[in-house]
User: Fold this.
Amino acid sequence: MEVNIVADREKLNMPVKLRVDNISLSFGGIKALRNVSFDINEGEILAVIGPNGAGKTSLTNSINGFYTPQEGTIYFEGKPINHLPPYKRAKLGISRTFQNIALYTNATVLDNLMAARHIHMKATNLITGAIFYGVAQREEIEHRRRVEEIIDFLEMESIRKTTVGALSYGLRKRVELGRALALEPTLLLLDEPMAGMNVEEKEDMARFIIDIHERQGTTIMIIEHDIGLVMDISHRIVVLDFGQKISEGTPQQIRHDERVIKAYLGQEA
Amino acid sequence: MASNIRPAGVFDTSYAQDMKINRTRTSRFLANAAFVAVLLLPLLTAEGGLGLSVVPAVWVGIVVRIAIYTIAVIGLNILMGYTGQISLGHAAFVGVGAYSGALMARLWGIPFWIAVPLAGLFTALVGLLFGLPSLRVKGFYLAMATLAAQFIIPWLMRYPMERLTNGSRPLEVPDPQFFGFSFGPQVVMYYLIIPLAVLMAFLARNLTRSRVGRALISVRDNDLAAELLGINVFRYKLLAFFVSSFYAGVAGALWAFDIGSLSLDKFNLALSIEFLAMLIIGGAGFPLGPLFGVAFINILRENIIPNVVSNFKVVLPNVFPFIAVADVESSLVPFLFGLALVIFLIVEPRGLAYRWEILRIAWKIRPYAY
Ligand SMILES: Nc1ncnc2c1ncn2[C@@H]1O[C@H](COP(=O)(O)OP(=O)(O)OP(=O)(O)O)[C@@H](O)[C@H]1O
Ligand SMILES: [Mg+2]
Assistant:
């Protein structure tokens, strides 16, 4: 199977966007990740699935640099990024959403998105920011335009100036996606973007994700429990169980994988 | 909060317009009217030279003190209100600004208008140093670390640096020289300090609505998300300490030149807590919070409490003969002060500035506003 994927990639000429190479992570006695390796190819939607506690969020946090794996290397666009602090990894173009929404609750939707433009707004510093008129205002307007495009795209015009704390759960999830997009990522990590949503909200979210991928060719790693949905939107799937990768392949391959059915799908059915 | 509500007919036609601080005619008018009133105030006193004495002369001093306190509390607002880093050492930083400004003038004859910003910068560096613990600890533990600053700094100034600061004895501050103005010194200070306070408030308002301010708010609301989305959290925490202490230092230096004689006892924990009370009552994280809080507490302390106390002084010893008149004052003042704060925090924990926002919205959507 491994061989097949490599062959596929060469055929499609897709370079590796992110390589997770043999990483292990433990918290005291708990082994959250054990020797996990896989690639995310440029331009694909890769789903990571697995039962609760399988290590999916830990994996995302390791890619971000929030957790430091005791073993293994993570490569982004061919270069190891283990030594980089989280904010520098964001500057490389890695952005994400959080399983437990992590917005700036007391700020407006607009400010949440503008805050994610941080790495792109290089002209505004302590001095130019305090003076505001001139440099900072020009930059503000320029980036406001980009943010308004995202607000438009995610159909959030009416809540633009609403404080995030006052929004419904479903809308907050959407704002989080918007904030992740405002960073203009080339790799987008989505940790259960549809968890806790109703069917309609889930469909909206799936549509947005597919749209993002089609319009901007953003490479996406999505963690999701809804298997039907995962099978529909992802190109490839990585399956984790108890911190180990137990399978990897196309939705077709995963659907018929004995170990996956036993560990995960069987449990659901 | 629906701060975006505006009267019908007021539309933003550009992002620049949408970013204006005062977007409606009413709020622009109010801001301008307040500014003009403050500028005219000294001229309306007996010492104003116009032969008017509409306003008692003490008001000049009161407004100057409100302005100086407001600068200090704006600094605390940037640190606590916007960045969420608690500080129990703000008074010590104001003290650093006061003494460094005074010493620059005493030792090297540096003129007032250079000494004030230099004192601000020096204090900012000291603040940066004491902000280092914020890189490791948060909340309660950070409060403890800043409390350490509140004790270490005055101690250092009192003992190891006694030769410079006069230790426990007062330190005389040279009169501010400013291009030979011939008003009474209080009025000169007034026209120097008020525009400076307005400028400092304006710069803080700009900073907090720019990229830098959003980074600070991100750190406050969710430091993890901020870090993972490209904000160097350590850097912005330190920047908050730097800016906050700069404001404290400028306020301190102005204070020194205004009162002309410094004593280390003034910059104690009680003052730090008073700054905190002012910020919380005024509204932490709101641009107008510091001004509201400082004004409110000044009025409470100077007008309301003395009034209440003078009544009780008569009533209490009459009703309870075992109560001495002198005790009424010494115990009632802190009691009433504390009581007012507690009531306030229960009624409006988000502060006066929040109330103000609500009122503004109510005004804008009042019936037939157009
Ligand atoms: N910060 C932490 N400290 C201690 N243990 C942790 C920490 N983060 C994760 N773990 C443990 O690591 C294991 C994997 O957790 P993780 O959150 O990565 O799972 P998950 O696959 O995301 O699960 P879920 O589907 O419930 O979100 C769990 O046993 C969890 O308790
Ligand atoms: Mg998880």
About this structure: Chain A touches chain B through 48 residues (CB under 8 Å). The beta strands of chain A are 16-27, 30-41, 45-49, 71-76, 79-80, 94-97, 187-191, 219-223, 236-241, 244-249. DSSP finds eleven helices and ten strands in chain A.
